[in-house]
Amino acid sequence: MFKKILIANRGEIALRVICACKELGIRTVAIYSEADRNSLHVRFADEAICIGPPQISHSYLSIPSVISAAEISNVDAIHPGYGLLAENANFAEVTETSNIKFIGPPPDITRLMGEKEKARSAMKRAGVPILPGSEGILASEGEALEWAREVGFPVLIKASAGGGGRGMRIVRDEEQLPALFKAAQSEAAAAFGNGDLYLEKFIERPRHIEFQVLGDQYGTVVSLGERECSIQRRHQKLLEESPSTQMTAELRASIGRILSTTLSAIGYVNAGTVEFLMDEDKKLYFIEMNTRIQVEHPVTEMVTDVDLVKSQILLAAGEPMDSVLHGPIVHRGHAIECRINAEHPEKFTPSAGKITAFHPPGGTGVRIDTAAYTEGVIPPYYDSLIAKLIVRGKDRDEAVSRMARALEMFIVEGIYTTIPLHRRILADPDFRAGKIDTTFISRLLETHEPAEAGAEAAGRSEKRA
Amino acid sequence: MNQKELKELIEFLIEKDIAEFELERGDVKVRIKRGGDQVYPTPHFTGPPAPPAAAAGSSARTSTAPGEAASPPEGAPSAEAEKLHSVRSPIVGTFYESPSPGSPPFVKLGDKVEVGQLLCIVEAMKLMNEIESDVRGEIIKKVATNGQPIEYGQELFVIRLS
Predict the structure, then answer these.
(1) CB–CB of B125 and A34 under 8 A?
(2) pTM of the predicted model, to two decimals?
(3) What is the pLDDT of residues B5-19, one digit of tens each?
(4) What is the Cα–Cα distance from A36 to A54, expressed in whole angstroms?
(5) Chain A environment of B150 (Cβ under 8 Å)
(6) What is the per-residue pLDDT for B50?
(7) Local structure of residue A343 (DSSP, 8 states)
(8) Is the CB of B43 less than 8 angstroms away from the CB of A52?
(9) Tell me, what DSSP letter sits at residue B50?
(10) What span, in angstroms and rounded, lies between the C-alpha atoms of A141 and B11?
């Protein structure tokens, strides 16, 4: 078992990994930029090393700085968290070459899944249902047009090296295609250094359903069921829940079986999430796989009682699946997570600064994952997630009312947060009825058109609340 | 804005712990940025046992109380503050005082150094990074010791400017 782990991340996920290590009796090393000197993950790690200035590229994303810190602190393993270097195959390789275990899948798998078009082909060959679309990279606009005609408009042109909604364009008819093709190509080249595109059928009002998996080093891959993440704004998830109201036990089991077989054959190890879109006929289509622990992992933890981060550490240390999961996966109850961001709840402008009051809610079935605290400063250099509020209830109704209650009792002053937005989501009749899809948020935001002055007043009072 | 108003403004910023402030009033524009000399808790970094010189260096960093954060560089007596320069590591790594084991150190206490002169090596991922002096002066303190693990921004030498 590892004696010491370096956490190559910051904020709430760094703290989350530190929690798992502490419970396993493993010493922790935190890394931090100068802007994070007073962070909780620095405070609670056994050792902490400053690795650079606030700018991400010179600190958390600087592979030499991270590896150098790992070397001088003599760690056995590195946990990359999510984002940052978590899906950087080069980083995983350099870690392994430095004789440090990378807590995640092998670099080749990360590379495969990182090229979205290749991942699609691999899954298709293995029998996982995928959205109808192009085979291979689109060599030209002409080829794109042929595929679009075959698949049927509307279609989505996507960057193969992409993610996070960039390098994507919805094309609704033939006339629009050439210009949108070019736009997607240049955006992809600029954002990811790779302008390769592929094409998929576009579903107007899909649900986003993803499956959590864990794999050991001996070929066993287990599915832990689904999360529904349809509440998104500009492809950023805001709220996730499990189980999905659209999932049946049969569908969950059958997708689980396909994923276990496919991923085991590919050689998948450690934690991962397979993302699907579900159309109005409840059919699932693979879109991409994330080869890391995800932000919304607590949702699965709450309904399965499996500690996913501890599982990652044990699996990386060579434990077989039966030592990690003590028995079959059982789903109990319903869990919902709200991602609380340091942003204005209506304008979504980032709100960095000092938190003057921080009082998270508590009570039955409530969990908070956060690195924020009273007098803590949210720096402007990093993403705006400051807390994850997760609740569990015996069924969806209880989870919904519990989340509404918990949001009401969550006090953050000094900065703007998206708590008011989440309260609106929870109060929405369609949300309460489970009638959601990925267009939900844009429709919710459209129906609320306050005048400028009204918004300012609302903003100020919400900031105090 | 007269000097008195400016002084009051600065005191107000310190009291409210505001790091950056900009004000435009008529044809007066004021921009104040407070330096990064804030007090921070000692990083919990424990590599091999830290020798007394390094421990003294890092505790000097934290001995300044909050509220004095805007005063001259920590650790140094204010009368001579502007004459001392702290050489800090630009990278994480291991500090070496000489080009190879057994050979004499690049610099020792009392040495006069020029701009660009090689002071030490910080090794990171098997690459030897040469750290050069960016000032001219005399080495009055060797803070880091040979083989010591170093973090970004950690003090290596103190040079009295000449």
Answers:
(1) no
(2) 0.80
(3) 888 888 888 888 888
(4) 8
(5) 72
(6) 35
(7) B
(8) no
(9) P
(10) 63
Is the CB of B44 less than 8 angstroms away from the CB of A59? no
For chain A, the residues whose C-beta falls within 8 A of a C-beta of chain B are: 34, 37-38, 42-43, 45-53, 59, 64-65, 67-69, 71-73, 98, 354
CA distance B70 to chain A (A): 17
CA angle A146, A151, A154 (to 5 degrees): 100
Element (H, E) at B126: none
β-pair partners for B121 = B96, B130
Domains of chain A as residue ranges with CATH: 4-103 (3.40.50.20), 132-201 (3.30.1490.20), 207-464 (3.30.470.20)
Active site residues of A: 292
Q: Which domains does chain B have, with CATH numbers?
A: 35-161 (2.40.50.100)
Residue type, A119: A
Whether residue B56 is predicted with pLDDT greater than 80 in this model: the reply is no
Percent of chain A's residues with pLDDT above 90: 86
